Target: Glyoxalase-like domain-containing protein
Amino acid sequence: MRPRRPVHFKVRDLKAATEAAVQRGGSLVPDDGPWSSADGQVTVRDPDGALFTLDQSLTAPWPVTL
Model:
């Protein structure tokens, strides 16, 4: 049995991150089920079946280069 912990990744560009996940074998989870996503979020199922959510965030914790 897989653990069922919510996994979220903050991303700068939600569209680009979603496209990258799908290109690498992920599939989008429909918004009408128990794993529905809010605005600014996309839930993806990876090739092994694990779920994760991509969250649009302009203030994600990545290094800022000046």
